[in-house]
Amino acid sequence: MNDLLHNFFDWELIRQVLPDLLTYGLANTLMLAVASALLGSVIGMVLAIMGLSRRRWARLPARVYIDLFRGLPAALTILMVGEGVFSAQVGWLASPYPVAVLALSLMSGAYIGEIFRSGIQSVDRGQGEACRALGLTHAQSLRLVVVPQGVRRVLPALVNQFIAIIKDSSLVYFLGLVTSQRELFRIGQDEAVASGNLSPLLATGLCYLILTVPLTHLVNHIDRRMREGSRPAPAADDRPVATATEGAPA
């Protein structure tokens, strides 16, 4: 018990590392997560539409991509992209930030693609047929009717995926960020190595909780609102009918 308190609850070390965590560490983590989520959403939507295509040449690459990036460990994907594909690091890629965003986006795109695909498939097929009966093309019916409804239905899953991206951003320290580019985990790790104590990593974990716990409650709120909104309104026959009281005029 004493070892636990000494190694993880040194409040002086936590107090010293918190300013760096809450200033540029938190900002860098959010920057990585938001940029990766936006690019991953674009990749995911393309994969979802390809996966739902009737053409095999479109479905097969999407299936291979999703299986590949969902099956590989996140650390290995980041190393392959950062140290393999862009190992030369020339020009604007001299900064590891674009490489880190690309690696996180490639991974998240595979998961978001499956989320979008399930949402689009949950929309009643009759709506697409009704759009075509009104003269809309297949692409127009997807863009205007089917895809917006499918995305709305998977909002809780998308927020959950954003939480996963925030936590996966801790793995970009493999790419060797400079001091001003360090995200939350790298700051905590560097301070833990310098002090020989793991309390800075506990402070890092608290910062991750600051980010993820509100998002978790947001997921629950969205899910609850969507379930309440999907309840059918009471039918007219089920509503109570007022009856005339005795002695009242007809």
From TrEMBL:
- Signal peptide start and end residues: none
The annotated region (Disordered) lies at 227-250
Which residue ranges does UniProt annotate as crossing the membrane?
30-52, 64-82, 94-112, 158-178, 198-219
Q: Where in the cell is it found?
A: Cell membrane
Q: Which InterPro entries match?
A: AA_ABC_transptr_permease_3TM (IPR010065), ArtM/GltK/GlnP/TcyL/YhdX-like (IPR043429), MetI-like (IPR000515), MetI-like_sf (IPR035906)
Record Pfam families: BPD_transp_1
Question: Biological process GO annotation list?
Answer: amino acid transport
- Keywords noted in UniProt: Amino-acid transport, Cell membrane, Membrane, Transmembrane, Transmembrane helix, Transport
State if Membrane is listed as a keyword.
Answer: yes
- Domain named ABC transmembrane type-1 is located at 26-219
- One GO MF term, please? transmembrane transporter activity
GO CC entries: ATP-binding cassette (ABC) transporter complex
Domain of life (superkingdom): Bacteria
Locate the compositionally biased regions of type Basic and acidic residues: 227-240
Per the record, the major location class is membrane
Give the membrane topology. Answer: Multi-pass membrane protein
Biased composition of type Low complexity is found at 241-250
NCBIfam families, per database record: HEQRo_perm_3TM
Q: Which family does it belong to?
A: Belongs to the binding-protein-dependent transport system permease family. HisMQ subfamily.
Name assigned to this protein: Polar amino acid transport system permease protein
